[in-house]
């Protein structure tokens, strides 16, 4: 992940003030340039005779710094990709959860609608049955009233007849 050696060659030159100039358009951070400017010997002295060693050491440090910077950028890019994947999975998961919840609600709503329709049909059936019973009982009541009226008439006639007979007997 960027920790391996780079196949890219970086050429650089030192100018007369021991400043580093990058030739092939490689960008270096200010901290890398500052570290490159630091003296490599512990006492802070640089010898002209050790310039070749310093150049090699400097090349090595630049390559290490570039490798570290590349590794850091690769690590950040990988973190962003992983975070993006995690966010995508979370979004997909929440969408699936939401979809399941919506489907459950639709199923429950449909079940309630069917139950209401079933109860409405049962209620209509009961009302029709009650109307039939009401008509039947009204008809029965009318028959009973008619019979009662006939019995009353017959009884009244018999009473009148008996009263007339008793009256005729005792006159």
TrEMBL record:
InterPro entries: MIC19/MIC25, MICOS_subunit_Mic19
Disordered: annotated span: 31-56
Keyword Membrane in annotation: yes
Gene Ontology cellular-component terms listed: MICOS complex
Keyword Disulfide bond attached: yes
Pfam annotation, one family: MIC19_MIC25
Transmembrane segments: none
Coiled-coil residue windows: 106-143
Compartment(s) where it occurs, according to its Swiss-Prot or TrEMBL record: Mitochondrion inner membrane
Keywords attached to this entry: Coiled coil, Disulfide bond, Lipoprotein, Membrane, Mitochondrion, Mitochondrion inner membrane, Myristate
GO BP term, pick one: inner mitochondrial membrane organization
Topology with respect to the bilayer: Lipid-anchor
Top-rank taxon: Eukaryota
Protein's UniProt name: MIC19 protein
The encoding gene: Chchd3
């Amino acid at each position: 992940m960027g920790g391996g050696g780079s196949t890219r060659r970086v050429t650089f030159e030192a100018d007369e003030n021991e400043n580093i100039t990058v030739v092939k358009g490689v960008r270096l951070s200010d901290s890398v340039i500052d570290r490159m400017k630091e003296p490599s010997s512990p006492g802070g002295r640089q010898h002209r005779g050790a310039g070749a060693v310093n150049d090699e050491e400097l090349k090595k440090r630049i390559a290490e710094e570039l490798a570290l910077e590349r590794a850091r950028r690769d690590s950040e890019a990988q973190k962003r990709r992983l975070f993006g994947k995690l966010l995508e999975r979370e979004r997909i998961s929440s969408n699936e959860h939401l979809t399941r919840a919506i489907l459950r609600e639709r199923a429950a709503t449909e079940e309630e609608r069917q139950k209401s329709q079933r109860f409405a049909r049962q209620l209509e059936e009961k009302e029709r049955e009650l109307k039939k019973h009401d008509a039947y009982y009204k008809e029965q009541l009318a028959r009973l009233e008619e019979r009662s009226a006939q019995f009353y008439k017959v009884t009244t006639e018999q009473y009148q007849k008996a009263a007339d007979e008793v009256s005729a007997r005792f006159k």
